[in-house]
Amino acid sequence: SSNEHKLNFKKSKEACLSYIQDALLQKQWKRAAEFLTCYVESLEKDYSREHIGPSEMIWRIGTEILWHHSQSSMKEFNCFMEQMKTLGVKRYLKVCLEHVFHLLCNGQIDEAYQNLSLAESWRFGEQTAIQDKEMKLIQAYRGLLDYCSWSKQKNILLEHGEDGFADLAVEQEMHGYFRKAAVNLKEIIKIPGVWDVFVKCYVDLLEFYGDHNEARQVLNEYAYNSKFPANPNAHVYLYQFLKRQGESKKSLISALKILHDIVPSHELMIDFNTMLQKSKKRKKRRLGLEVIFAALDYAGWKENAKAWSCLARQVKQIVISEKHLDWIKQEWNSRKDWWPAFHFSRYLAKRNWQENKSLSYEKALVAGILLGKDCKYFKYVSHQGCKAQLKRFRMLKKFVTRHNPVYLRISG
Questions:
Q1: What is the pTM of this model?
Q2: Beta strands of 94-166 (E only): which ranges?
């Protein structure tokens, strides 16, 4: 019967898709291609109306296979993408974008630009309005390629030496790229979203031509507009811009404070800690201790000598002055159950000593203060340092032994 035929067809189609999925997961690209061919041939009898149509299935699966297949060529990929563009107008611009990405990955910049220009001129009734966001992306990526061309021309002109922009034709061409890039980049960053590469390029254009106020406005909007998703890079770009402009430490600290709240493990936390430690305000120095402790909570910082040096310096200052020991105690209370195994084991002491003696010195100082002179890490490193007759390790041992009562106050 007709219903039985449709049911059997549906089962066989689902089985075919399952085989394709299995082949993709196992990276069996040839096998996946064979099953996809069967799937495509069987679709001539498919009259179902699924939410995700067959053409999208073919596009997504076929692209993945051609990207990885050892025998696929750029010519085949281009031909496939052109076919996909004609299968459904609803996905036309998305397919164009993916085609452009593939061309860029293969270094075919001129071909990518040509495809973007063709896509930008595409019109199809109401679909043009529906795909407004995709069209803006098309324009934005064209602006990005215009920026790349502008950057190349800029470098050519700057290489001419002290006589400046000697080649008028090249300079005019560069300004032409600037105008085209600026228009498209400015439009995309008005839309709430994560536009890191576009923002960076647009700000670079503005700074080169001395429009620092516009650059500042763009970065502030990108970082602080509540309509945009939380984005650590937005605050990094703002901080870097403020630093280039020689802004006050207050402005720099303000930018990094928000970055710390979002990503306490960011590499700029060392800069943040350094600025806070130089402050005369007790509140900021207290925050500096919190910042460096928080950064060292993450595995990626375990062997960061600069971070341990920052912590060791501040802890040592507090111990010598015997002021604000409560700061250390507050930070240590939430970590004393897991930091000893995480940072101060005998195994780590041995490895750190072998690989980086400066790191082991800084960590041993912190370990000795936080865990006392009987700490495994401190005992091993100080013993090895004294055995090697290194003066600063002998001084380290004396310092920790002399201030061992501080450990009792912190741990108590």
A1: 0.83
A2: none
